[in-house]
Amino acid sequence: MTDTWVKHLAGKFIVFDGPDGSGKTTQFRRLIELAQTHDITVCEVREPGGTEIGERVREILLDPEHDNMHVRCEMLLYMASRAQLVADRIGPAVERGELVLADRFISSTLAYQGTAGGMPQSEILSVGRVAVDRYWPNLVVVFDVDEASAASRLNPLLDRIEAKGAAYHRRVRQGYLDQAAADPEGHLVIDARPDADTVFTDLCIQLANRIT
Question: Is the peptide bond before 156 cis (omega within 30 degrees of 0)?
């Protein structure tokens, strides 16, 4: 397969998402490198964080000492970080016609605080509409992996979210699959179990089929 499809990434807002340990961040870096070799300007962001304020919020959210944080507080903190990220970086980059690549976005909140945490999806989306305004992604790429494979890839020093246990992360995975099933046009599901090269080849094939 040639790389002629890569030029079509310009001007898109694409989110990479999936369970902890799915390997999405590795694929995120590889797609950025591919885009840059084709002279595409990339705005790369991560969640939570990506701005000075967002990084402070990230510290609070992932600190294992905050294990008594209520799920509504958790959701609102993620949305607060996201609102700042959209205002400072995502929105301006979209307006400039750059490729915006986000490592997690509102799909994470729907899976973690929604399906796994028990918050109604409608409530999350109501707050999400305030946080992201009109800057919704063109495509969410979900890297799907079973819990055992995901757990084997995680750093032994787990953050507060990673340490929530197997049942919680099983629900997270199902949350992502449910989102993709409900909106197949807005999602790609990538089997993230194979080695990184195989996953990246599959990602490129599926992106080429979707955006060209």
Answer: no
The SS3 of residue 140 is strand
b/e sequence 73-100, b meaning 16+ C-beta within 10 Å: ebbebbbbbbbbbbbbbbbebbeeebbb
Residue 51: give its domain's CATH number.
Answer: 3.40.50.300
- Our count of domains for the chain comes to 1
Cα–Cα dist 198/135, whole Å: 31
19, two tokens: 């369970």
Give me the phi and psi of 13, to 5 degrees please. Answer: -115, 110
Element (H, E) at 17: strand 13-17
Residue length, the chain?
A: 212
What is d(CA 191, CA 71) in angstroms, rounded to the nearest whole number?
29
Q: Which amino acid is at 5?
A: W
Q: Report in angstroms the alpha-carbon separations of 191 from 145, 167, 204.
A: 7, 21, 13
Domain that holds residue 196: 4-211
Binning pLDDT at 50, 70 and 90, where does residue 20 land?
Answer: confident
| CA 180 – CA 184 distance, rounded (Å) | 5
Write the pLDDT tens digit of every residue in 32-78.
999 999 999 999 999 999 999 999 999 999 998 998 999 999 999 99
HSE-up (13 A, CA, CB side) for residue 95: 8
Residues near 181 by beta carbon (within 8 Å), at least 6 away in sequence? none
